[in-house]
């Protein structure tokens, strides 16, 4: 019976992670996806070119998370030049 309770709790926790924070990507994940260096992604975040969530920190480097839909929006925007 204890095993069933534990399995149910793990499934519940997995659902909550997917709903709440499952769409958050680390700086490294974004960098790998875009094929750039981590430093480049951090520079984009600090300049405001890439929207991110800052994590609480107590050191030199601030942790960030980028929402998946923000990254997807970069690729869905098409800049097609118009001809006159």
UniProtKB/TrEMBL annotation:
Name of a matching Pfam family: HTH_17
Helix-turn-helix domain: residues covered: 24-75
N-terminal signal peptide: none
Highest taxon listed in the record's lineage: Bacteria
Region (Disordered): 1-24
Gene Ontology molecular function: any one: DNA binding
Biased composition (Basic and acidic residues): 1-16
NCBIfam families: excise (TIGR01764)
Protein name: Helix-turn-helix domain-containing protein
Organism listed in the record: Dictyobacter arantiisoli
């Amino acid at each position: 019976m204890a095993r069933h309770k534990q399995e149910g709790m793990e499934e519940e926790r997995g659902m909550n992670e997917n709903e709440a924070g499952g769409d958050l990507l680390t700086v490294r994940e974004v960098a790998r996806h875009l094929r750039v260096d981590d430093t480049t992604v951090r520079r984009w975040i600090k300049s405001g070119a890439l929207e991110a969530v800052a994590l609480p920190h107590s050191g030199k480097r601030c942790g960030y998370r980028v929402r998946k839909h923000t990254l997807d929006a970069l690729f869905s925007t098409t800049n097609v030049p118009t001809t006159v």
